[in-house]
Amino acid sequence: MILAELTKLRRSALWAVAIVLPVLAVTAGSINYAANQGVLSAGWGSYWSQVVLFYGLFFMSMGVAVLASAAWRMEHRGHNRNLLMSTPARTAAIVGAKIVSLVLVVAVMQAMLLTLVVVVGVFVLDLEGAPPWEYVVVALLGVVAALPVVAVQSLLSMLIRSFTAPVAVGLLGCAIGTGLLYSGQGGVVSHLFPHSLVTSALFLGNGAVADSAGLDLAAVGPIVFAAVVLTTALWALSARLLSQRDLS
């Protein structure tokens, strides 16, 4: 099922999203870093903080929303949904394949972000030294933290035929997630909300964000645990709802 989903995505415009969003994040972060040399301390830390600032708040989660809507859009066309449901695969496998294939695209997006950060930092901004290895850990943790966002946006896109409606809900989710993080409702509450989980993961060790946690087990463990629990619950719910829906 996963190979079938990846085959569907091979010629899709989904891959453009995985490239464009990191380009926008690195471009915005680089411009902001270069324009605020008098305020920001020179080096990789300040540069990285500027890149992931808006990427963590909106870009990544919105990218996932667009990816999920695009992935399910083809199933809503014609009788593709009937063909999908007529396969011998269980609904859990169908939904799971969608989630896994989308997560692989998100992983590519993260790899693109890291690559661009290094290339621009070394060859454009001429930053001294090698980029810290912690950035790789944060990028990988971002993929894990994005699992619940992938699952919930996949669920919305599965239930709603419209392309834009799930994306709009994703934007609302980003706003709510940001509000939870900066309204004093952090900790357990923010970890239970998929979009704020992504922001929490990408902001670990970020010097530009007040009260950001360090990159240690005490901060990473709850994020990973919450991501696994939320994704499993959303996967089970999606499979249940898909099995109850009539063919169209």
Give an account of the 3D structure:
The chain has 248 residues and is an all-alpha fold. The protein has one domain (2-244). Helix content is 74%, strand content 0%. It is built from eleven helices and no strands. The chain has helices at 2-9, 14-35, 44-73, 80-85, 91-123, 134-145, 147-159, 164-181, 188-191, 194-202, 217-244. Helix 3 (44-73) packs antiparallel against helix 5, helix 3 runs antiparallel to helix 10 and helix 10 (194-202) runs antiparallel to helix 11. The longest helix is centred in the middle third of the chain and has 33 residues, at 91-123. The protein is globular. The two termini are 21 Å apart. The model has no long low-confidence stretch (mean pLDDT 87).
Helix content: over 70%
Radius of gyration: 19 Å
Sheet having the most strands: none
- Oligomeric description of these chains: single chain
**Through-space gap between termini:** 21 Å
Number of strands: 0
Residue share in β-strands: under 5%
Q: How many structural domains?
A: 1
The computed structural class is mainly alpha
Uncertain stretches of 5 or more adjacent residues: none
* N-to-C order of helices and strands: HHHHHHHHHHH
